Amino acid sequence: MTIEQAISLAPAERAIQLIGGDLTEKSLRLHLEGLPGVDAVGLEARAASLGTRSIKTTSKAWALDKVIELIDLTTLEGSDTPGKVQSLVAKAMIPDPSDLSAPRVAAVCVYGDMVPYAVEALGAAGGESGIHVAAVATAFPSGRASLPVKIADTKDAVSSGADEIDMVIDRGAFLSGRYGLVFDQIVAVKEACRRENGSYAHLKVILETGELTTYDNVRRASWLAILAGGDFIKTSTGKVAPAATLPVTLLMLQVVNDWYRLTGERIGVKPAGGIRTSKDAIKYLVTVAETVGEEWLQPHLFRFGASSLLNDVLLQRQKLTSGHYSGPDYVTVD
Amino acid sequence: MPETNRFLDYAPAPESTAILNLRESYGLFIDGEFSDGHGESFPIISPATEAKIAQIATADASDVDRAVAAARRAYSRTWTKLSGADRGKYLFRIARLVQERARELAVAESLDNGKPIKESRDVDVPLVAAWFFYYAGWADKLDYAGLGPNPRSLGVAAQVIPWNFPLLMLAWKIAPALAAGNTVVIKPAETTPLTALIFAEILQQADLPVGVVNIITGAGDTGSLLVNHPDVNKVAFTGSTAVGRAIARSTAGSGKKLTLELGGKAANIVFDDAPMDQAIEGIVNGIFFNQGHVCCAGSRLLVQENVKDEVVDRLKARLSTLRLGDPLDKNTDIGAINSRAQLERIRELSNIGEQEGAERWTADCEIPKNGFWFAPTIFTNVSTSHRIAREEVFGPVLSVLSFRTPAEAISKANNTPYGLSAGIWSSNGSRVLGVADKLRAGVVWINTFNQFDPASPFGGYKESGYGREGGRHGLAAYLTGAALESSGRGSSSAALTKGASK
Amino acid sequence: MTRLAVPKTYKLYIGGKFPRSESGRVYPVATSKGVFLANAAQASRKDARDAVVAARAASSGWAGATGYNRGQVLYRIAELLEGRRAQFVDELRLSEGLSESAAQRQVDAAIDVWVWYAGWADKYVQVAGNGNPVSGPYFNISTPEATGVVAIIAPQESSLLGLVSVIAPALVSGNTVVVVASERAPLAAISLSEVLATSDVPGGVINVLTGSAAEIAPWLARHADVNALDLAGADELAGDLTWIDLQIAGAETLKRVLPPESGVPTPSVERITFFTETKTVWHTKGII
Lengths: 334, 502, 288
Fold this sequence. Notes:
The complex is a heterotrimer.
Chain A: H1 13-19, H2 25-33, H3 40-50, H4 57-69, E1 71-74, H5 82-93, E2 107-111, H6 115-122, E3 132-137, H7 147-159, E4 164-168, H8 171-175, H9 179-192, E5 202-206, H10 209-212, H11 215-227, E6 232-234, H12 246-263, E7 268-270, H13 278-291, E8 304-306, H14 309-322
Parallel strand pairs in A: 1-2, 1-8, 2-3, 3-4, 4-5, 5-6, 6-7
Helix pairs in contact in A: 3-12, 4-13, 4-14, 5-6, 7-9, 11-12, 12-13
Chain B: E1 25-26, E2 28-30, E3 33-35, E4 42-45, E5 52-56, H1 61-78, H2 84-100, H3 102-113, H4 117-138, E6 152-153, E7 156-160, H5 166-179, E8 183-187, H6 194-205, E9 213-215, H7 220-227, E10 234-238, H8 241-250, E11 257-261, E12 267-270, H9 276-288, E13 300-304, H10 308-319, H11 340-355, E14 359-362, E15 377-380, H12 387-390, E16 397-403, H13 406-414, E17 421-425, H14 429-438, E18 443-446, E19 465-466, H15 471-476, E20 479-480
Parallel strand pairs in B: 1-5, 7-8, 7-10, 8-9, 10-11, 12-13, 12-17, 13-16, 15-16, 17-18
Antiparallel strand pairs in B: 2-3, 4-5, 6-20, 11-19, 14-15
Chain C: E1 26-30, E2 36-41, H1 45-64, H2 67-83, H3 85-96, H4 100-120, H5 124-128, E3 130-131, E4 138-146, E5 149-153, H6 159-172, E6 176-180, H7 187-198, E7 206-209, H8 213-222, E8 228-230, H9 243-251, E9 256-258, H10 269-273, E10 276-284
Parallel strand pairs in C: 5-6, 5-8, 6-7, 8-9
Antiparallel strand pairs in C: 1-2, 3-4, 4-10
Helix pairs in contact in C: 1-8, 2-4, 3-4, 4-6, 8-9
């Protein structure tokens, strides 16, 4: 695609409303390239400063439970089995067998072929109002497959009962400036999230910020994903370093805030990969609360994509309850 | 957490004052020891609670004589006899001791000054250590300071410092003075002498030869006696332009080399292509850092007219998340105003701003019952003729003005008798450097603000003073034979670089 | 038959023009032996004011020129002086009572001083400036630049060399100057102005006043739009006024003040950098 070549993009309500009905590759490119730039030093300094908030006592107790409620408990290994997924689901439902007051996580996140096992294991604990099943799709993690394959991948997961789809964008297309192609694919995958009853599985759009590299790219890709209909923007697959960082997440929250100021619509954000400690997770909570507001600290607007984070939070939680430090043998491996 | 509380009302996280080991009263630090002052002692209070911290001595004329005599003795008998390397080692020791006692110094500073602990802990005290570390390394390298071979120290330096960065300003003054081979008599501000007096203990721990640094306390009269003392060779002052002017007058013709770091009314210029989220942070940091008690504060926001409303909206939203309160709480963003007198001045100028027709907006935050507080305030519809756009408020008060073209921004930015600092926010590399060239200010921050570093010269144009502190230039202010920044007759023409005309 | 000479009318040099004093006053200038040479204009405070206005107006253009350009313009003055060497030698012989060879030495030295300073215009920034290794992701550079308008009291002795030795260093960095010429021997200063007027120096960059330093200097010292004072020749002012009074007057707007020196100032980099302000520019550095 070239700028001169005006190509009609697939219909996407937000983009049409914002940029205009005659949505073209050119208008999309002008829009994205007209976004204000990001100064890396200032962004990182702000993130570091948010990281120095001191969260103690009652605030800490609230924060630890909140972190658990916002976790997408994740296993995304080639070695995943139905048994592994069952174990993960058990942990999701009862994170701390020694303390049943610990809240449940928001969702389990698995590969598409594992969705039926997750749904089955959850049983009545699952469903729209329970623990969600999130499936990675669209040739996760590289996204290197044709669109029909990506659509089939998505439909398969949705029909198996996935509540949420975590898709990856085509980073190659994005980096070579084919924004329209990336846009079209997101729109198409969003369509594939449509269930028979007309409702949609929630769509999280993974930007893989570690491959986009620059903050300007992250801002453009975030904006693009929202315009194309994403319900969430997500940092990473967890398979590429760096995965989620606080500055990148802050930047994505700023985009979400801009979108909210512009339209009144709230978009979710999911940092994923690399967040392993309670201390780090609380920095993210602070960043959310001070950037977009505390109302974003709900599972439909903010998630942590993590696996080992949960146990660290449970250890901290045990420390707060008992007054002494706990150890890894006092939390369960999943 | 109860439903009524919000997460954002973070539970208190106070830094403990148990680390402090304060005395009930402090004398004058002269010749390596504390001794009584002959003036009337006075109490210092915490501006956050108005509770008394300690009783402080006042140095009268005889005490100033004593301090200057001690510095003179140390200059001629010990300090100039040491090698540069040994002078440097003492400064390195001081840097390390400051690092070791960093938490204690930070707590004392926040207690005495009212600034948030996160600033004293993360900015002031680390910079103090950095300043001593930087100049320590210069002490045996003066030949390479760009002043020609064998530059000489000046003698006894009289230094008078303000209350906004009490310990940091002490470091800015003492570190280069000692590295260059001078001895020092320094007077901290009347309201904030505490960390200087703890620093005296650090000097004792460092075993610095007696008399090399003398710390005397008192009000303006003591400062005046010190800078006008006939046996002083160098005067360094940081504070108001009014006092700086008086010092420039009283030292005229005396041969004392003079460095003045005075007031400012910095413009922070935001172009429409600025990295907007960072610009908002920079504006906030520019004027609300240290409650706006900063001579280089970005107190005049100049916004390109086509983004003015957006910037002001974002700014208000951001200010609403600032947390005002206990300076010792680790989550406090805005601490206490340093004194009742300063609070009155901020109130007065703000009221005048309103009377002159500017629109006042104040962040909604709870003001503690005791102590001196002023909520972050923005004035919009400000014109260049308003007093709040011309006078230094020295408080958390921002005036917003707009411009249409770069030329207009430059012209408005320069339209002040001050010239200390300025900020520029834009993603256009060519424009930022072009505008920086045209600004009449000693420090220009581009896409950042309020950055300080011992390697970086700092100081003003015009009525913001003269001379530079920091870097090689800051060292030159304490040397003669200097090719830079000299002032007064102390700069002997004999040491000038010789010309080629003969 | 001897030809009847055509004497020159000596006027002020302000804003590139040669006005008489607005006060209409002149004062007689005589040789060292007391023989009348000419009437020089006796500048008033209003002439000083006009000169400051002219200097300020010329400031941004001169300071904004490249160092290379300023260097060439200053070097051009030396070229023109060389061409009018004989005229200056004659004037110095008459006005200062110098021998032919002493007058020649002074003119040669003045020319060489111009050349020496001209060469600094595109170099002093490298000597006095700095790249600063700050502890953070910032590009940080300190550069000296002109302080603005410099008011100068020229040395009383060596009326040409003394004048050149004080105005050239101030001009190097891009300052514009208002100079009060040697009161006793002002004619070389006006002849130099004629050189300047035909050189490439923009009008207003150099403004030359003749008359009483004691009368004019206080107005310059108090003038809010003057940034710096060079009191090189203010050691012995008429009446009770001293250079310290001028420094005190200058303190009102925190002027940078260079105190008097005995004799003609030696060429030095310090004379250039004294009339500069160090500007430190920070910029963030990031690759992502």
